[in-house]
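REQUEST ID: PR-0412
SUBMITTED BY: lab tech R.K.
PRIORITY: routine
TASK: structure prediction, single protein chain
INPUT:
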Amino acid sequence: MTFVLGLTGSIGMGKSTTSAMFQKHLVPVYDADATVHALYRGAAAHLIEQRFPGTVSDGVVDRKRLGAQVLGHPEALKDLEAIIHPLVRAAEQQFIREHARQQTPLIVLDIPLLFETGGQQRVDAICVVTAPADIQRQRVLERQTMTEEQFNVILAKQWPDDQKRKQADCLVDTSQGLEFAEQQVQQIIETYRHQTGTVASAMLNQKDHPTHA
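STATUS: complete
OUTPUT:
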Protein backbone atom coordinates (compact mmCIF):
# COMPACT_ATOMS: atom_id res chain seq x y z
CA MET A 1 0.00 0.00 0.00
CA THR A 2 1.07 3.57 -0.68
CA PHE A 3 3.69 4.92 1.72
CA VAL A 4 3.08 8.52 2.85
CA LEU A 5 6.25 10.48 3.57
CA GLY A 6 5.92 13.85 5.26
CA LEU A 7 8.43 16.48 4.11
CA THR A 8 9.07 19.49 6.31
CA GLY A 9 11.72 21.96 7.33
CA SER A 10 12.08 25.46 8.70
CA ILE A 11 12.29 28.57 6.54
CA GLY A 12 15.48 28.80 4.47
CA MET A 13 16.41 25.13 4.84
CA GLY A 14 15.80 24.25 1.18
CA LYS A 15 12.51 22.35 1.49
CA SER A 16 11.08 23.61 -1.80
CA THR A 17 14.25 22.60 -3.64
CA THR A 18 14.12 19.18 -1.99
CA SER A 19 10.44 18.80 -2.88
CA ALA A 20 11.31 19.48 -6.52
CA MET A 21 13.93 16.72 -6.35
CA PHE A 22 11.30 14.18 -5.31
CA GLN A 23 9.13 15.30 -8.21
CA LYS A 24 12.10 15.05 -10.57
CA HIS A 25 12.33 11.38 -9.59
CA LEU A 26 8.62 10.95 -10.35
CA VAL A 27 7.41 10.86 -6.75
CA PRO A 28 4.02 12.63 -6.52
CA VAL A 29 4.14 15.58 -4.11
CA TYR A 30 1.25 17.31 -2.37
CA ASP A 31 2.22 20.94 -1.80
CA ALA A 32 0.33 22.47 1.14
CA ASP A 33 1.48 26.02 0.33
CA ALA A 34 0.37 25.69 -3.29
CA THR A 35 -3.00 24.46 -2.06
CA VAL A 36 -3.39 27.55 0.13
CA HIS A 37 -2.54 29.83 -2.81
CA ALA A 38 -5.15 28.04 -4.93
CA LEU A 39 -7.75 28.39 -2.17
CA TYR A 40 -7.03 32.13 -1.98
CA ARG A 41 -7.99 32.30 -5.64
CA GLY A 42 -10.96 30.00 -5.26
CA ALA A 43 -13.00 28.26 -2.58
CA ALA A 44 -11.68 30.21 0.41
CA ALA A 45 -11.91 33.73 -1.06
CA HIS A 46 -15.55 34.47 -0.23
CA LEU A 47 -15.21 32.94 3.25
CA ILE A 48 -12.19 35.10 3.98
CA GLU A 49 -13.92 38.23 2.68
CA GLN A 50 -16.86 37.56 5.00
CA ARG A 51 -14.57 37.38 8.03
CA PHE A 52 -11.99 39.95 6.87
CA PRO A 53 -13.81 42.56 4.77
CA GLY A 54 -11.74 44.37 2.18
CA THR A 55 -9.15 41.62 1.77
CA VAL A 56 -10.47 40.21 -1.52
CA SER A 57 -10.18 41.92 -4.89
CA ASP A 58 -11.64 40.46 -8.11
CA GLY A 59 -12.26 37.17 -6.32
CA VAL A 60 -8.65 36.80 -5.15
CA VAL A 61 -7.36 37.29 -1.61
CA ASP A 62 -4.89 40.16 -1.32
CA ARG A 63 -2.28 38.62 0.94
CA LYS A 64 -0.90 41.99 2.07
CA ARG A 65 -4.32 43.25 3.12
CA LEU A 66 -5.07 39.97 4.83
CA GLY A 67 -1.72 40.03 6.61
CA ALA A 68 -2.43 43.52 7.90
CA GLN A 69 -5.58 42.23 9.61
CA VAL A 70 -4.09 38.98 10.88
CA LEU A 71 -0.45 39.52 11.84
CA GLY A 72 -0.14 40.39 15.51
CA HIS A 73 -3.78 39.48 16.15
CA PRO A 74 -3.93 35.91 17.55
CA GLU A 75 -7.72 35.66 17.51
CA ALA A 76 -7.87 36.81 13.89
CA LEU A 77 -5.21 34.27 12.98
CA LYS A 78 -7.23 31.51 14.65
CA ASP A 79 -10.26 32.54 12.61
CA LEU A 80 -8.24 32.42 9.40
CA GLU A 81 -6.84 29.01 10.27
CA ALA A 82 -10.37 27.77 11.01
CA ILE A 83 -11.29 28.69 7.44
CA ILE A 84 -8.18 27.42 5.67
CA HIS A 85 -7.09 24.30 7.56
CA PRO A 86 -10.19 22.15 6.88
CA LEU A 87 -10.01 22.96 3.16
CA VAL A 88 -6.29 22.17 3.01
CA ARG A 89 -6.81 18.94 4.92
CA ALA A 90 -9.61 17.87 2.56
CA ALA A 91 -7.34 18.44 -0.46
CA GLU A 92 -4.57 16.48 1.24
CA GLN A 93 -6.86 13.54 1.97
CA GLN A 94 -8.15 13.52 -1.60
CA PHE A 95 -4.53 13.41 -2.85
CA ILE A 96 -3.73 10.46 -0.59
CA ARG A 97 -6.87 8.52 -1.52
CA GLU A 98 -6.32 8.98 -5.25
CA HIS A 99 -2.79 7.60 -5.06
CA ALA A 100 -3.84 4.80 -2.73
CA ARG A 101 -6.39 3.69 -5.31
CA GLN A 102 -3.71 3.87 -8.00
CA GLN A 103 -1.36 1.90 -5.72
CA THR A 104 1.38 4.52 -6.05
CA PRO A 105 4.34 3.13 -4.06
CA LEU A 106 5.45 6.42 -2.50
CA ILE A 107 3.97 9.90 -2.17
CA VAL A 108 5.22 13.00 -0.37
CA LEU A 109 3.24 15.53 1.64
CA ASP A 110 5.14 18.83 1.57
CA ILE A 111 3.89 20.50 4.76
CA PRO A 112 5.94 23.43 6.16
CA LEU A 113 4.31 23.31 9.62
CA LEU A 114 3.92 19.54 9.84
CA PHE A 115 5.07 19.27 13.46
CA GLU A 116 3.41 22.50 14.53
CA THR A 117 0.00 21.32 13.28
CA GLY A 118 0.24 17.78 14.64
CA GLY A 119 0.83 16.27 11.21
CA GLN A 120 2.88 13.38 12.57
CA GLN A 121 -0.29 11.30 12.72
CA ARG A 122 -1.03 11.89 9.02
CA VAL A 123 2.14 10.34 7.59
CA ASP A 124 4.03 7.05 7.78
CA ALA A 125 7.43 8.70 8.19
CA ILE A 126 8.89 12.20 8.35
CA CYS A 127 11.77 13.67 6.36
CA VAL A 128 13.24 16.90 7.71
CA VAL A 129 15.21 19.25 5.45
CA THR A 130 17.97 20.87 7.45
CA ALA A 131 21.06 23.10 7.32
CA PRO A 132 23.21 24.93 9.90
CA ALA A 133 21.63 28.03 11.45
CA ASP A 134 24.13 30.44 9.92
CA ILE A 135 23.43 29.16 6.41
CA GLN A 136 19.70 29.31 7.06
CA ARG A 137 19.91 32.93 8.19
CA GLN A 138 22.07 33.94 5.25
CA ARG A 139 19.69 32.35 2.75
CA VAL A 140 16.61 33.97 4.24
CA LEU A 141 18.04 37.47 4.62
CA GLU A 142 19.25 37.39 1.01
CA ARG A 143 15.57 37.54 0.00
CA GLN A 144 14.74 41.13 -0.91
CA THR A 145 11.35 40.98 0.78
CA MET A 146 12.67 39.65 4.09
CA THR A 147 13.84 41.66 7.08
CA GLU A 148 15.59 40.46 10.22
CA GLU A 149 12.44 41.21 12.22
CA GLN A 150 10.22 39.22 9.87
CA PHE A 151 12.66 36.32 9.95
CA ASN A 152 12.63 36.23 13.75
CA VAL A 153 8.82 36.34 13.83
CA ILE A 154 8.64 33.37 11.46
CA LEU A 155 11.24 31.42 13.44
CA ALA A 156 9.26 31.98 16.64
CA LYS A 157 6.27 30.21 15.09
CA GLN A 158 8.28 27.17 14.01
CA TRP A 159 9.72 24.32 16.00
CA PRO A 160 13.51 24.66 16.42
CA ASP A 161 15.47 22.71 13.81
CA ASP A 162 17.17 20.49 16.37
CA GLN A 163 13.80 19.48 17.77
CA LYS A 164 12.54 18.57 14.30
CA ARG A 165 15.66 16.55 13.57
CA LYS A 166 15.22 14.54 16.76
CA GLN A 167 11.76 13.44 15.62
CA ALA A 168 12.68 12.83 11.99
CA ASP A 169 12.88 9.41 10.38
CA CYS A 170 15.29 10.73 7.75
CA LEU A 171 17.13 13.95 6.94
CA VAL A 172 18.17 15.89 3.86
CA ASP A 173 21.13 18.18 4.58
CA THR A 174 21.13 20.96 1.98
CA SER A 175 24.28 22.67 3.21
CA GLN A 176 26.67 20.65 1.04
CA GLY A 177 25.30 21.43 -2.40
CA LEU A 178 22.52 20.25 -4.68
CA GLU A 179 24.25 17.07 -5.81
CA PHE A 180 24.72 15.82 -2.26
CA ALA A 181 21.11 16.71 -1.39
CA GLU A 182 19.80 14.84 -4.41
CA GLN A 183 21.83 11.77 -3.50
CA GLN A 184 20.11 11.78 -0.12
CA VAL A 185 16.71 12.14 -1.78
CA GLN A 186 17.42 9.17 -4.06
CA GLN A 187 18.41 7.05 -1.07
CA ILE A 188 15.21 8.03 0.76
CA ILE A 189 13.10 7.13 -2.27
CA GLU A 190 14.76 3.72 -2.54
CA THR A 191 14.21 3.11 1.17
CA TYR A 192 10.53 3.99 1.37
CA ARG A 193 9.13 3.04 -2.01
CA HIS A 194 9.46 -0.63 -1.00
CA GLN A 195 7.82 -0.22 2.40
CA THR A 196 4.15 -0.65 3.20
CA GLY A 197 2.36 2.35 4.68
CA THR A 198 -0.68 2.31 6.94
CA VAL A 199 -1.98 5.90 6.64
CA ALA A 200 -3.29 5.60 3.08
CA SER A 201 -4.93 2.22 3.59
CA ALA A 202 -6.67 3.41 6.76
CA MET A 203 -7.93 6.50 4.98
CA LEU A 204 -9.15 4.46 2.03
CA ASN A 205 -11.00 2.09 4.36
CA GLN A 206 -12.64 5.02 6.15
CA LYS A 207 -13.81 6.38 2.81
CA ASP A 208 -15.04 3.04 1.51
CA HIS A 209 -16.56 1.90 4.82
CA PRO A 210 -17.83 5.00 6.62
CA THR A 211 -18.92 4.62 10.20
CA HIS A 212 -22.29 5.81 11.43
CA ALA A 213 -23.05 7.18 14.82
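NOTES: The two ends are 28 Å apart (CA to CA).
REVIEWED BY: pending
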